[in-house]
Design goal:
The complex is a heterotrimer of chains A (about 300), B (about 325) and C (about 600). By secondary structure, chain A is mostly helical. Chain A has one domain: MetI-like (MetI-like fold). Chain A is about 75% helix and about 0% strand. The longest helix of chain A is centred in the middle third of the chain and has 37 residues, at about 95-135. Chain A is elongated and about 75 Å long. Mean pLDDT of chain A is about 80; it is low at about 1-25. Chain B is mainly α and about 325 residues long. Chain B has a domain at about 95-265: Orthogonal Bundle (MetI-like fold), CATH 1.10.3720. Chain B contains 15 helices and no strands. Chain B has helices at about 1-30, 45-55, 60-70, 85-120, 125-140, 145-160, 170-175, 185-210, 210-220, 225-235, 240-245, 245-250, 255-260, 270-275, 280-310. The longest helix of chain B has about 35 residues, at about 85-120. Chain C is globular and about 75 Å long. With about 600 residues, chain C is of the alpha+beta class. Chain C has 22 helices and 21 strands. Chain C starts with 10 loop residues before the first helix and ends with a strand. The longest helix of chain C is centred in the C-terminal third of the chain and has 18 residues, at about 440-455. Classes of the chains: A mainly alpha (about 300), B mainly alpha (about 325), C alpha+beta (about 600). At the B-C interface, helix 2, helix 4, helix 6, helix 7 and helix 8 of B face helix 1, helix 2, strand 10, helix 9 and helix 17 of C.
Chain lengths: ~300, ~325, ~600
Amino acid sequence: MENANRAGLPVALQPSVKTPVAAQKYRTLWQDAMRRFLRNRLAVFGLIIVLFFLFLAVFANLIAPYPYDKANFAQVRMFPFKNWAHPLGTDEIGRDYLSRLIYGARTSMTVGIIIQLIALSIGVPMGGLAGYLGGKVDFVVTRLIEVMTAFPGLLFAILIVSVWGGGFWKVILALSITSWIGIARLVRGQVLSLREKEYVEAARSLGATSRNILFRHLVPNALSPLLVAVSFGIPGAIFGEAGLSFLGIGINDPIASWGKMVGISGAYAKVYWHLALFPTLAIALLMLGFSFVGDGLRDALDPKFIE
Amino acid sequence: MTRYILGRLLSLLFVLLMVSMITFSLMHAVPGGPFDEEKQPLPPTAKANIMRKYGLDQPYWVQYTKYMWNVVHLDFGIPYQQPTTTVTALISSNWQITAQVGLMTILFAFSTGITLGIVAAYNQNSWIDNVVTFTAMLGITLPNFVVGSLLIFIFAVRLDWVPMGGWGDGSCLAGRYFCSDWVLPVIAYALTPMTVIARYTRASVLDVIRSDFVRTARAKGLSERIVMTRHVLRNALIPMVTVLGPIIPDLITGSIFIESIFRIPGLGKYFVTSTFNRDYPMIMAIALLIALLWGLVYLLTDIMYTLVDPRVRLGSEGGR
Amino acid sequence: MNKFRNAPVSLLSVLIVLSLLLAACPAPGAAPAAQAPAATEATTVVTDTTPAAAASGDAMTTVFGTKLPDDAAPYDEQIYTTACSNTANMTTMDFAVSVYTRYCLSDLFQDTLIDLDKDFNVKPASAEKWEVAADGLTWTFHIKPGLVWSDGTPVTAHDWVATYQYEADPKHAWDFTWFYAGVIKNWDEVVAGEVPSTTLGITAPDDLSLQIVTTKPFPPLPGMMKFSFLMQKAALEKYGPFYNNDPKTSVSAGPFKLVSLEPGKKIVLTANETYKGFRQPRLKGYVGIFMDLSQAFESFKKGEINDIGYETLTPADFELIQKDPVLSKNYLRGFGDFRTDYLLFDTFNPPFNDLNVRKAFAHAVDREAIVKNVYGEIKAMPAYAMLMPGFPSSDTKGDLKQYQNYDCAAAQKYLADAGFAEGKGFPSLELWLRNEQPALQAVFQAVAASIADCLKVQIEVSNKDQKVYMDSLNAKPTKITIGAISYGMDYLDPTNMLGIWVSTGRHSWKNEEFDKLIAEATPLVGDAAKRDQMFRDAEKILVDDVGGVFIDHRWQGTLYQPYVQGDSIRVPDSNGISGPHWGNDWVNGNIYIAKH
């Protein structure tokens, strides 16, 4: 990051600066990053996976051959690839497995994205203010972060979901409570290291307000590590939902959730291998996709590689 | 330095106090108490008896103060789920086993993870790198209970090389399995941290390899071995202290999945049983133990960081 | 950020130091073994502690001097192993200390007053006979003379008095006190701490007579004595209630005694050579191995354990058992505790305060298809009422079927009558489950799907933490609108299974006629036929007024190794059911390991 600042690039990141030179540099940075990203085969592969699942999630109701909750007790636990009416077989109570996997993508994507949005909207202001203002605010936020970090996560999740019960929004709430900590810590660290930089000093001496400096200068500069963090945070949240659902305290049936599908079908797996295999594959594949995208983003946005 | 450490310890005390308060209020907010009837409602008088017996009839703040007063005197109470012992005795006897598994796991995960990461970085974009990267992804995406069940199925059930589980319960004496009861759990447990470590090592080594001073060292004509040991590894592994420190408390407090699948009588199961049974003294003790471990590990990593990198001053908390 | 030119110490050397430190520690596998020298092979331990029989030279003679059956393995191999859950909450070996947190292999350190035969008839055990006085209130149990504790002292009625006083002690706060509530004289008052425990209606006029006074005539009392698990008065006073957790203080009047108890590892019992009771064991010992029950079936197939219960078997395990000729012959089905799975409602509030809605739900569950395809017929039969056919006063002829059978057209009509034609305007519901295993989660998901499909209503299924569920259920007013739950009996009388439906019980359903019938039938003495008919009438009200929607009765069973033999588990009862029967304590004296 230090190199980046010395090169003066972060100034160019400010959308508000209107000089043509800066605007040109701004495009160049992102174009460079984009080019580097697209040249990275693994990253592109990851992006394709993510986009594929996103597509499934958005158009689930159009793509899926059956509704996610249509049960047929006469056709339970059908094996895959046997009957083209149910290409991936059926589940314990006779619901089309392909359809449930497709709707599962919708659940996972929604959970992952909403939780990251919540994490950003709490973590960025918290970390930003703590890092920029320092003093008492920083002290309070740091202690809060310490307490939340030290708290045993499993205990926390089980306790919280026990109080509120399962269900879509409650799971999101329970996972959001701890999701912002990493973001806040990251933003605080970034702002701390950036706020002493020359261009911030310059802005300050020119009479810019704290809010202005924080949101115009500091936060945009923390953007690239933040983007990487989010690309790892979304699959983290998806995994969190899958974990809670696996333990039986997450998403309610009949809504499809990959984690729940793995959790219930573990008991059937020795014979009906497909019930555990497909949702496990789906989770693994989506995680893989996000990880590749995250790695690719980190490489692409790292200014050290700018030749 | 001393002042800094004292300050941090003070802040750790504050964290412990907060954790105890949050845990206490949360566990009392959760519906259901430790002595709920399983089948039929107890007569109210009988219920009152139980609450009185365990001091649960008193106001929350009295219960909390009493508890904290006892904790200061190192008395953590009697676990409801094993009333013939004390919380301290129960945790120490079980944690001993968990810590053994954890330490072996740490050793295994760190040594193989770092080696794999270095090898991958030095062969960037070769098939070795791809294999390591891909396995690393698998390690992160496969939960350890899946890995554990698979290992048991293959090596204990099908091949019968190792026991199904258990811990020091005579299989060593029987001589059949060569004291191998720890092999599968350690491998299953180490897989995820190992792959995390491998990924970070790879990235970190790559960063350093590309840096100016390594180029300079090479330009000076130093042998590749010296460049690697003196410049690359030393500089690549230091930033990992902050990344790897936090893995440690996780590992030495145990995994419910690993311990229950491999029949290890460790601390892990109490995370879940204590919550499900509303065993208040055990919940509090475990929460405090974990918070303490986290606090200490963060403090140690920070101290270690200054030792290895003098540019970081402990006074300012920046840059972390 | 990544440049540390002058780093004085490398992390690698830190790691090397760490690894050296670890290497200096003893070999990892050996360390715990060395700390626990007592934990050698179970068989060795048992041999060490039983000096008698093996020395006599006859490999087929027990410590009691009895002969093993001809097909039995030698006495030294008569060790029965079983799985104990390593995640369950366990604290005690004694029923009198805690019913719901007992270790596995508990209740082998004493005989209860009575036992049951395979057709659930009450027969003598520790009591050789009993009678009730003319008022129907005072029962006298005559203890079999000559019973002794393993420390040589005689078993007396005073031990039972002490046990019951301890059970009722308000300071003890027993988790099973509800069982005798309203039955035994002064029980409730003692539990409440209003009168001392010495005033309890259980006394010992002499060493071998135990007198129990009930508050009102209570015909099922002898059957209730299935739970008269005994503790020794002297040990209770000297060592406190947990004396049976430690071999040094443990004392047994039952067929086995404690050798070692290591929670998380194993429990070892050996035959109690001083035992004089009705079930002299052929087994030389029991070993309970703590394990994650998800691994128990693998352990069974490997021959580590001799049995495995139906709760532990997954649906996949059942498929494998049914396909395997040997396993399927050794899965022995039984009534278990006559457990029924059902849906319960909050009938005091909308929408289930409307009988039409409840009837709609009752007729919308396709039980037969669900039991056949989702649950499996090896595990359950469709239910239309509370009492499983075979239980006293149960509907064996199918008279009650019409009230809750699957009939989607009728169900839709009832819902329309309630004002929700085609499900329009019906609130979306959350069906609560009580921490169910995957197989039962699937069953109730199917139930919800069946209802949702037929009635066009929205039902989500939510699996709740056990304590949260029970707390919400028992709350008055209840916090559960619709939930799924099961109930199994505690003693073989309809008042037990139907009694939980009275309006003071756990359900939010009230029917005055039903309450009245149960209240009158329970204490009825002298006219067994009339009592039976009253319970039958009550159950009819229950299904017709839809207190609950009954889904299935569970077949419970145990999978045994083929070499586990004994009439108690292999010979069928009058209904043709051979597996282990609830309350048949003589099983422990009867089974043995055959040559294999």
